[in-house]
Amino acid sequence: MNDGKSKSPSGDLGANILDKIVLRKKEEIAAAKALVSVQDLENSLHFNRTPYSFKEFLLAEDRTGIIAEFKRRSPSKGLINGIADVAEVTQAYNAAGASALSVLTDVDFFGGKTDDILAARAANQIPILRKDFMIDEYQILEAKAWGADIILLIASILTPQQINDFGKFAKGLGLNVLLEVHNLEELERSICPNLDAIGVNNRNLTDFTVDIQTSFGLVNKIPDEFLKISESAISNPQTIKELKAAGFNGFLIGENFMKTDNPGVAIKEFVAQI
Q1: Residue 269 appears among annotated catalytic residues
Q2: Is the alpha carbon torsion for 202, 208, 211, 217 positive or negative?
Q3: pLDDT at residue 194 is higher than 50
Q4: Is 8 among the residues known to form the active site?
Q5: Domain extents for the chain?
Q6: 180 is catalytic
Q7: Annotated catalytic residue: which of 71, 102, 176, 190?
Q8: Which range (13-22, 169-178, 258-267) has the least confidence?
Q9: Is 186 known to be catalytic?
Q10: Is residue 201 among the annotated active site residues?
Q11: Tens-place pLDDT, residues 211-238
Q12: Which of 81, 99, 230, 232 is catalytic?
């Protein structure tokens, strides 16, 4: 049994990958700030649009609660799908009843880009989550400027003070805030009023293993005033039924659809079985 203290190579890789991502993110943000001023962001096309309500779409009767993700690659799996068209795939997700779209914007580790979120926004009238490693208010302004409706705050890379401050800043812009936690300790230190939803990531970021029991173990610890989301390790429609019964409102699914030749068909077939 793993006591969580083993120094396996994969364990080291995981701890390092998060550190690497955050270090790289700091460089990216510095470069972006030099290139695009805050004023430029505030003058951009989408900055003054009113974001969609995450809650409204997540709980809508004609929607599935699925947050369907567009993801080209990941550090643990490498290339997942190098040919999918973001507008085409996200429209198919929307048509299949997705409650929201998740679009990766991290370049180096996930193969995302700004144009992906802009293309998804142009093609859809449902909430979009900017999926990235948010460590600076500037990124929240970017998310707003690019037409996102939801930002992700990852508890494992932020202090409770940052979570509170970033949440407040995002809410001031009209954005919805999803906090991601991996365990009870992160949940308990990160809860603050400036959140809309709390997501339980079933992936262990130190060794990339997934365990759906993480969600079942934490669902009743999340205060009921927040939307409850289960993330990762969802590949079976039956799992969604069980998560719903346990009290989850939303289900973030990425790889399961993206690893197929046609993610749009994959989500349609999946939804038909829920």
Answers
A1: no
A2: negative
A3: yes
A4: no
A5: 9-272
A6: yes
A7: 71
A8: 13-22
A9: no
A10: yes
A11: 999 999 999 999 999 999 999 999 999 9
A12: 232
The catalytic position among 28, 186, 231, 255 is 231
86-97 pLDDT, tens digit each: 999 999 999 999
CA distances 232 to 44, 97, 151, 198, Å, are: 33, 19, 17, 14
Which one of the listed residues 99, 102, 176, 201 is annotated catalytic? Answer: 201
The rounded distance, in Å, linking the Cα atoms of 45 and 43 is 7
Three-class secondary structure assignment of 157-179:
HCCHHHHHHHHHHHHHCCCEEEE
**71 labelled catalytic:** yes
What CATH number was assigned to the domain covering residues 9-272? 3.20.20.70
- With a pLDDT cut of 90, the percent of the chain lying above it is 89
- Whether 232 is catalytic is yes
Q: What are the CB-based long-range contacts (under 8 Å, 24+) for 159-162?
A: 160/189, 160/190, 160/192, 162/135
Give the position of tokens 């940052």. 162
